[in-house]
Specification:
The structure holds two protein chains of two kinds. Chain A is mostly beta strands. In chain A, the strands form two sheets. In chain A, strands 2, 4, 5, 6, 9, 10 and 11 form a seven-stranded mixed beta sheet that branches. In chain A, strands 1-3-8-7 form a four-stranded antiparallel beta sheet, with no helix packed on it. In chain A, a hairpin with an 8-residue loop joins strand 9 and strand 10. Chain B is globular and about 45 Å long. The N and C termini of chain B lie far apart (41 Å). Classes of the chains: A mainly beta, B mainly beta. Chains A and B meet through strand 4, strand 5 and strand 9 of A and strand 5, strand 6, strand 10 and strand 11 of B.
Amino acid sequence: GAGVSQSPRYKVAKRGQDVALRCDPISGHVSLFWYQQALGQGPEFLTYFQNEAQLDKSGLPSDRFFAERPEGSVSTLKIQRTQQEDSAVYLCASTPRGQSTEAFFGQGTRLTVV
Amino acid sequence: GNSVTQMEGPVTLSEEAFLTINCTYTATGYPSLFWYVQYPGEGLQLLLKATKADDKGSNKGFEATYRKETTSFHLEKGSVQVSDSAVYFCALSDTSGTYKYIFGTGTRLKVLA
């Protein structure tokens, strides 16, 4: 596709529910990042993939968060047993390769946990 | 660790006013520096970037210079327009291997006609 696509755009989950957020990066992009943006804050790094390998997951806030990119393209961020503090916009970004080039961001998924 | 500090908003200006949004950083190595903009209801878009000291990034009338001696990357525009109203994020690219971005908290700009 022309850009990074994320779905759903909005998700309301009841506390304790599991959610799955999808990211379709730009075709051919090697690197994929997930960020969490709380209201009024800048995005914060969650995890990084190079192709299908998850090379850095140091930003995942707890073991309830899990990400995968099994075929090196589409990625899914899963949050188990959601809690209110998980409410945020989840951003996906991709780059052609693991260098300091421009990261292309999706529009994000706004997760609200009620 | 690496970090980015940018001036708090909101910043409210009249159309055609001069804009400065301050950004300073702390980093090991030689990171690349970026300004991203987020218009209402839209995703993050790259505004400009600089990859080494003394580089000047520019786009759409905005510019910023990578100042290693002051560890700064201030965003400037000579004459703002109502359409520039948005949230601006300063960021650096971590050089530790993943090249993940570290963002500032964002500065909301409101330009009045």
